[in-house]
Design a protein that fits this description.
The chain is mainly alpha-helical and 83 residues long. The protein has two domains: 1-37, no CATH class; 50-83, no CATH class. The chain has helices spanning 7-17, 25-48, 60-70. It is rod-shaped and about 40 Å long.
C-alpha cells in the first residue's frame, strides 16, 4: 500500500477474498471511476445543464434511471404513464 486514497478499497477486496488482492491500486481506482463514480458524475452534469427531469422531455429520467440501475439506456427501468 502506498498511502493513496483508495488503498482501503484494495485492502477490503483482499479481506473479502481472504487472500491478497490481485488488483493494483491504479486498477481499483480506474474501476471505481468508470463503474461507480461515472454514472453519478454524468447525472450531476446533466442536472447542472438542466437536462434531467426537464419539463420539455421528462422521459430522459427514465433513460438515466435505467442506466444507473443496469447500465443500459435502451432498457427502461420504468415507464411513466402516457400524458
Amino acid at each position: 500500500m502506498t498511502g493513496g486514497p483508495l488503498d482501503g478499497v484494495v485492502l477490503n477486496a483482499a479481506l473479502a477474498d481472504k487472500s491478497r488482492s490481485q488488483w493494483t491500486v491504479d486498477q481499483v481506482e480506474r474501476h471505481l471511476r468508470t463503474n461507480a463514480l461515472g454514472p453519478f458524475a454524468l447525472w450531476s452534469a446533466l442536472e447542472d445543464h438542466g437536462l434531467v427531469g426537464s419539463p420539455r422531455n421528462p422521459r430522459n429520467v427514465v433513460l438515466m434511471g435505467s442506466f444507473l440501475q443496469n447500465g443500459n439506456v435502451r432498457q427502461p427501468a420504468w415507464t411513466p404513464p402516457p400524458p
